[in-house]
Design brief:
14 helices, globular, 419 residues, six-stranded mixed sheet, 21% strand
């Protein structure tokens, strides 16, 4: 039996741990700072929206336990708001496969319980660098799946792959119930509003502790009129301020929030993160090496929803590599190869897509304008969020975008641009 330790009880860490237990031949230890009960009773952890490719990974591992309960989202209604109260470009982006969002308080708590039920060991404690070193000495392979705090800092920033050195948005999120829908008969639909120079609002139907809800992700350009939550107000006050800003900028959306209220006392989340890519291997005292995974190495702004999806895909790639390694040693060189393979196949595309959505280069503005006129463009854009590898085929450069848009009826280039 090979001994593997996983530090962190999030999407990537628990998915790998459960995958190793299912494969057999591994003694798996998970180190979690919180118990399942503490997770369920605590504040919300994220604004995850899982797209089809990542959900297929979970289903193949028998880990998508909420498919019959979570709202199945098949499209995103997008609106450009060039000035307060003005709706400009409007279009619907249709996903080839439905997306879903499950409150990670539910998901990670249940997965954590499954680790123990399936024969894994869970240690409930916090680790510092010294404690991590002791854990790594006792195991053949140690994965660090913690994206915040002291342990996240053990992996050095990869400057060549990190497009930003400061947060590009200040984030606020709220889980709410009682939110209206423009067309209730249309079924669950996500909504996206972009206010140039101010920020973006994303509404995602989801499943939380009390049942179906809506998550509002508020992406504020630092210092803009949307940047109103730095004092971390309680949920009710956060909602009041959100309604106030929506009434000014998005009055049609504010109407749908007239009867809304937070789902529970822990329904709000705040933060500002710097998108970053880190080197995958850290060497601890005594020369023992540990391998990062998920948010420990790749942190994307949630504007493109890549966080949980990228973690799921990383877990799939790492699990396959570990099993294929057989009895071979888990050397630092092997660790680097594992991450590099995942970076080249998947992660770099999500990083590039997110950077483009944060900065909106001119050719991407043309894509959004074209999406308002051509349904195939809107569909391809939606499914690039779901499978960011396609970014390299049509969004990575102005030339690629122009080549694609020129194939549309009546167009010969990038066409209209967003202001």
């Amino acid at each position: 039996m090979r001994r593997v330790a996983v530090v962190g009880a999030g999407q990537a860490g628990l998915q790998v741990a459960l995958g190793l237990l299912a494969a057999g031949g591994y003694e798996v230890t998970v180190v979690s700072g919180r118990t399942a009960g503490e997770l369920r009773a605590g504040p919300v952890l994220s604004t995850q929206a899982m797209f089809g490719p990542a959900l297929r990974v979970e289903r193949a591992a028998a880990l998508d336990l909420w498919v019959g309960e979570a709202p199945q989202v098949r499209s995103v209604d997008a609106v450009l708001v060039p000035e307060p109260g003005v709706r400009a470009l409007e279009f619907t982006m249709t996903l080839d496969e439905p997306a879903q969002s499950v409150d990670q308080r539910i998901k990670m708590a249940r997965w954590l319980e499954l680790v123990e039920e399936r024969g894994g060991r869970v240690e409930y404690r916090e680790l510092d660098r010294s404690g991590l070193g002791e854990l790594a000495v006792a195991h053949e392979l140690t994965l660090v799946a913690v994206g915040r705090g002291e342990l996240a800092g053990i992996f050095a920033r990869d400057a060549a792959r990190s497009p930003f050195d400061a947060p590009q948005r200040r984030l606020a999120a709220l889980y709410a119930q009682g939110v209206g829908a423009p067309d209730p008969a249309a079924g669950p639909r996500a909504r996206m509003h972009a206010v140039p120079g101010v920020g973006e609002l994303y509404l995602q139907p989801a499943l939380t502790l009390s049942g179906p809800c809506d998550i509002l992700l508020w992406e504020a350009v630092p210092g803009s009129a949307f940047d109103r939550f730095g004092d971390r107000p309680p949920g009710a006050e956060q909602l009041r301020r959100m309604r106030e800003s929506m009434a000014e900028y998005l009055p049609w959306e504010a109407e749908l929030w007239a009867a809304a209220e937070p789902t529970d006392a822990g329904a709000s989340l705040y933060g500002a993160l710097t998108p970053v890519v880190r080197h995958p291997v850290a060497e601890l005292d005594g020369g023992v090496a540990v391998l990062g995974i998920g948010d420990a190495l790749v942190v994307n702004d949630p504007i493109t929803g890549q966080g949980a999806n990228g973690a799921a895909r990383a877990a799939e790639a790492y699990l396959r590599a570990i099993v294929e390694r057989g009895d071979g040693p888990f050397t630092a060189e092997w660790m680097t190869e594992v991450f590099e393979g995942f970076w080249q196949r998947h992660a770099r595309h999500g990083v590039a897509l997110t950077a483009d959505l944060l900065t909106m280069p001119e050719h991407l503005r043309g894509v959004f304008a074209a999406a308002a006129e051509h349904e195939p463009v809107a569909r391809r854009l939606a499914n690039t969020y779901a499978e960011p590898v396609d970014h390299a085929a049509w969004l990575a450069t102005p030339e690629l975008t122009a080549e694609y848009l020129a194939t549309l009826p009546g167009r010969s280039g990038t066409g209209d641009r967003l202001s």
